[in-house]
């Protein structure tokens, strides 16, 4: 099969790779049709990482079931599917209570199977495959992973109707966080440095937008909330921005409020000074959020698919650029230079 392999320089080489085979009766082989570029993948762009060299990456994908194991009953060959890529070892204490998103072997397991979107074929257990309604496109389905991350964070936040919410970061995750909060009846202000992303946020329903390169974001959020501060702040920028955005989030939130950490950290120790006395005395809660899994009896990825299918969130407007797999390096470069290109969600046709 054709696949994009990570190089030593951190770019991709499109070449031939071994097509995966079904390893167990409950597994499914799928043909990938569309894959997205996630901020996590983007942080490895043009960076030397021996652990990723010659590996297939990507974890936002949709496609068609091609072959199913003899024990599979929920999908059949020819079905259009979206594929969940949060996959633990299935046997640890956390997997047993369906908190597989914090399985200590999550990365090792998912990258062996479902988390290989930049290739023509993937395999995974049938429970990770969701049939797509005819009116939900492959491109829309490739955004379900993104919105599932947002939905998990919202569930952890306890967000309720009429809450005052601030979102830091207007990339796909931040915009998704804003859209879900609005769909739940909250008032939302969103902050970013890229005006094009903020313009899109306004189009998608944000009550207010703040260009943090031109304005004091903390003061704008306080003004938006009548001087009190936001009930909930979602930090959705992450990465190299975190030393600036996490302290900013703790200053935007009201006393007794919550800061949900959605944006990702780089590996290793990260030192970020915070006003711990004020945080403690104000009983501000810092809530880390990691990927997604289950909400009560419901799979969060299935919940997002249902929201899209019912038209409760319109995800298509987030797709700003489209490329083929052969153009994957151009796609990543476009996503990386979002200030110049206006990229939000970049879709890759496989």
From TrEMBL:
Domain Enoyl reductase (ER) as annotated: residue spans: 10-346
GO MF term set: oxidoreductase activity, acting on the CH-OH group of donors, NAD or NADP as acceptor; zinc ion binding
Keywords recorded for this protein, A-Z: Metal-binding, Oxidoreductase, Zinc
Keyword Zinc part of the UniProt annotation: yes
Cofactor: Zn(2+)
InterPro entries: ADH-like_C (IPR013149), ADH-like_N (IPR013154), ADH_Zn_CS (IPR002328), ER (IPR020843), GroES-like_sf (IPR011032), NAD(P)-bd_dom_sf (IPR036291), Zn_alcohol_dh (IPR050129)
Segments traversing the membrane: none
Record has Zinc as a keyword: yes
SUPFAM superfamilies: GroES-like (SSF50129), NAD(P)-binding Rossmann-fold domains (SSF51735)
Highest taxon listed in the record's lineage: Bacteria
Family the entry assigns: Belongs to the zinc-containing alcohol dehydrogenase family.
Protein name listed in UniProt: Alcohol dehydrogenase
The organism of origin for this protein: Sphingomonas aracearum
């Amino acid at each position: 099969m054709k696949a994009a392999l990570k190089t030593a320089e951190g770019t991709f080489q499109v070449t031939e790779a071994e097509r995966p085979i079904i390893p167990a009766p409950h597994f499914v082989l799928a043909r990938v049709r569309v894959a997205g570029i996630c901020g996590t993948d983007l942080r490895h762009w043009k960076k030397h990482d021996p652990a990723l060299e010659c590996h297939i990456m990507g974890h936002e994908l949709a496609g068609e079931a091609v072959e199913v194991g003899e024990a599979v009953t929920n999908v059949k060959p020819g079905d259009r599917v979206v594929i969940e890529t949060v996959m633990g070892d299935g046997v640890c204490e956390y997997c047993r209570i369906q908190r597989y998103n914090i399985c200590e072997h999550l990365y090792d397991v998912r990258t062996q199977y479902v988390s290989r979107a930049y290739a023509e074929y993937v395999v995974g257990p049938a429970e990770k495959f969701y049939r797509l309604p005819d009116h939900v496109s492959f491109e829309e389905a490739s955004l379900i992973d993104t919105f599932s991350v947002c939905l998990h964070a919202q569930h952890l936040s306890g967000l309720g109707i009429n809450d005052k919410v601030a979102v830091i970061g207007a990339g796909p995750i931040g915009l998704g966080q804003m859209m879900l909060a609005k769909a739940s009846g909250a008032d939302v202000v969103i902050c970013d440095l890229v005006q094009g992303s903020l313009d899109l946020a306004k189009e998608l329903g944000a009550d207010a937008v703040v260009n943090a390169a031109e304005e004091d974001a903390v003061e704008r959020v306080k003004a938006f909330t009548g001087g009190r501060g936001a009930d909930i702040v979602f930090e959705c920028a992450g990465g190299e921005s975190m030393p600036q955005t996490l302290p900013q989030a703790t200053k935007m939130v009201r006393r007794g409020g919550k800061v949900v950490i959605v944006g990702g950290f780089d590996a290793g120790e990260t030192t970020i000074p915070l006003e711990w006395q004020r945080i403690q005395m104000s009983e501000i809660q810092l809530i880390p959020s990691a990927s997604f899994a289950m909400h009560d009896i419901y799979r969060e990825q299935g919940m997002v698919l249902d929201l899209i299918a019912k038209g409760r969130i319109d995800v298509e407007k987030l797709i700003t650029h489209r490329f083929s797999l052969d153009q994957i390096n151009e796609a990543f470069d476009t996503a990386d230079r979002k200030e110049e290109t206006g990229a939000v969600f970049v879709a890759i046709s496989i």
